[in-house]
Amino acid sequence: MDAHAMLAIFLPLSLGLAAFGSALGLGKAVAAAMEATARQPEASAKILVTMLTGCAFIEALTIYALIVVFNLSGKIG
Amino acid sequence: MTHPAVEAVAHEAHSHPEVLNWIQLLAKATEPSAFSSFLFQWEKVLFAAMVILFISFISVTLSRNIKMVPGRLQAFFEMLIMGLDEIVEGVIGSRGRTYTPFVGTLFIYILVSNLFGLIPLQNSTMAFLSTVAPIAICVFLYVQWVGITKNGILGYLHHLCGSPQDIFGWLLAPLMFPLHVLGEFIKPLSLSFRLYGNIMAGHVLLAVFMGMGIGMLKPFHVPFGVPIHFPFLFLELLVGVIQAFVFTLLSTIYIAMMLPHEEHAHVEQHQH
């Protein structure tokens, strides 16, 4: 297997792995935020802001993988 | 006449799907000329300049005639500025007002250029690392400057050692110092990559779906496509606003972390 074929297989796979972890994290974050909102609806605005910030942090990890994939995808040929 | 830099730009543009913006179209139309290569090289700067001119024009015209009883537009902008002020004061504390101008400028600039990128034939400046990284470097330098001026040089070094209080803290200081220094350098890296990656990925997503939409109608030989990228425009609207907010909030948190610790304790008491 040459480098091109390896890249072609593992670039999408790496993105999928990163997205898998991110999805688990996002699910947990949103579930916790919804629970908190259900318990205390008057704090929903504060919870929403905190949740969005956390979600952006979690998503950033997938985005890093995406940047790497885009940078290397030109080498597949 | 092909300039080597032009070829580099063109090569870079082909590494991922991209919708041509009007500056690139203009450059392609006037291809073999000095004007065209100028457009290719200065594309990002031109977009940034457009956003900056737009913001400057709005703020100058608004601040020319400020009334005691605000009109509709003035009331809207006052609400925006007050909201920013509240967020910054909520994070840093009562003395956080000093930092609102810097942080608010970041927010407005990033937000406007993200929204500019969603206008057809426009591109967001935030989709290029070369225009996002300088903003993150500005935040980095400003945070260090705040740390040095508010803590003093010795206080700044003390902070970088993890603020040791007792003998165990001082024993751990040689370990904490490189970690903190590394952390300071990683902050602008993660800031810029987060913003650039999100916006660039959004534009690539739009470009891919536009290509698919055009491909769907290819057998009929019509000069348009199915606009299946349309729902994603709203996603990009949301992402643009959230990323601008996150960038601002993180810069505020970095400033708050650099400030002397008495103030920090006061903030926590204030919040509970």
Radius of gyration of chain A using CA atoms only? 18 Å
- Unreliable stretches of chain B, pLDDT < 50, 5 or more residues? 1-14, 263-268
Taking all residues together, what is the mean pLDDT of chain A? Answer: 88
Q: Kindly name the structural category of chain B.
A: mainly alpha
Q: Tell me the span between the first and last alpha carbons of chain B.
A: 67 Å
Protein described:
The complex is a heterodimer of chains A (77) and B (272). Chain A is mostly helical. Chain A is built from two helices and no strands. In chain A, α1 packs antiparallel against α2. Chain B has 272 residues and is an all-alpha fold. In chain B, 77% of the residues lie in helices and 0% in strands. The N terminus of chain B is likely disordered. The chains are: A mainly alpha (77), B mainly alpha (272). Chains A and B meet through α2 of A and α7 and α8 of B.
Main attributes?
heterodimer, A: 77 residues, mainly alpha, 0% strand, elongated, B: 272 residues, 9 helices, 77% helix, disordered N terminus
Quick rundown:
The complex is a heterodimer of chains A (77) and B (272). Chain A has 77 residues and is mainly alpha-helical. In chain A, 87% of the residues lie in helices and 0% in strands.
Describe the secondary structure blueprint for this structure:
The complex is a heterodimer of chains A (77) and B (272).
Chain A: H1 3-39, H2 44-73
Helix pairs in contact in A: 1-2
Chain B: H1 4-13, H2 22-29, H3 34-64, H4 72-92, H5 100-116, H6 129-160, H7 167-216, H8 230-258, H9 261-271
